[in-house]
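ingest -> validate -> predict -> emit
validate: passed (alphabet ok, no gaps, 491 aa)
predict: started
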Amino acid sequence: MAKGHRFLPDMGDFGSTRFSSGFFSTAGVFVAAVISLGVSHVMVSRFGLEFFVIALTGIFVGTVYTAASFRNLMFPFIVWLLTIGGFRFLWSIRTPLLPDLFLDRLMMIWLTGVFMVKFVAERRPFRGPHKLDLLMAVYAMYLFIRIYLQGMDFLNPWTQSTLIPYAAYFFAKNIITDYKRIKALLFVLLALLTYYCITSIGEKFVLSWLVFPKSILTERTGFAGRSVGPFMQAPLFGTIIGMLLPVFLYFIAQARDGVTRFFLLLGLAAGFAGLYFTYTRGSWLAGVMAMVTVTVLNPRKYLKIFAPMVILVPLLAVSFLGLGQDKFMKERVENDDTLGSRFGTAATALRIFKDNPVIGVGYFQFRQAREDYIQPVDVPGLGTIRFVQFRHNHIHDIYLGPLAENGLVGALLQGGIYFLILQTFIRKFRWRSRGDPVAYYVLPVFAGVFVGYLAGGLAIDYRFFAFTDTLFYMCAGILYGYQGPEQQHVS
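emit:
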């Protein structure tokens, strides 16, 4: 019997943990396969093969996107940024009762969920300092309370100009925390800017194969002859290109071979052309001020790139594109009616503020209030501007209009935000003396974005659009949260 024992199976093996886990793992796979086959059969038989393939593709893409999002928060952040930057039209969920969920909103909801899960699960603290965060929260609540008291009619502009940009500030501050991530973000902005430049040129010369989506060419309204981009709005499109032009300078300065440098210089020239074809004076000012700011803050690296372009670009434009004979440009530049109506609107905003100095007339209440101010405006050099010339104008700036609507309280809160950003920039820009690459190469580019935003805000109200404010506050979040190479403690 003792001999026969050798030929009997070892019952302990069957009861071992290894066997048990292997058995149940195999059984689980088998059960999952059976269920999948059953569900697949039902879907194909009830909804058709095409629906089944679309659903299967969606599940696969969703699974991969979920895994990538939880692995690295930079991934969902960049996807969200791209959707705000003009690709929200790719997909949406429209409902008759609830607000439409465009791709940018869906990506923001997803990013928020993944961010909170990771930070709670990994017990990460939110990145300090928090003074600017608190001030922005106070200003956002001030505007929201005013909207609530007015009946919530203008919640969407508040979402576009306040909620989304402030969320970009918060996410960027806590996610993009070192030079490696900042460089990755700049690559994304370079790709986005290249797309804008190609699209603008394609619109100008009606090269449909260069324009995506095609609706840019077929559904444009109100901006005949001007490039509108995926935003379908020429002044906004031009201002965004102008704000981002300094990104080319960063990569040209970093280029290590002549071929790369040549194509980047070509891209910068295309950027100037793309900006020009929006035919918007405020956008031109934003682009020029952004480039000048970058070269002033780092003349050693950026001036030698920008200075030759200032001479070459106009020469090439006149020689090859005939822009010197561009009649449309002359009409835009010499158009005094637009300039006069802007002066009339600004003067009316000041009159409204004078009568409502503390809290203003209310968020988005300028159009109602201006009917009580029908006086003509005398402007030196332009003569008398009658009220009928600007009575239908919206606010066309980010300074006097909001001052009339939100009063000194709003102006002081917004001014405090700008002051803290400027104070932080000055302090961290000094880190270039200790060899910090972000202070030396990147912060001048961010300063160009800031100045381009503020300069463009002299001629356009950003509140209907999210991306200009998103760029501004995203850069502010990175600036405010960046601690330098020797202080990096967040993976």
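Confidence is low (pLDDT under 50) at residues 1-15.
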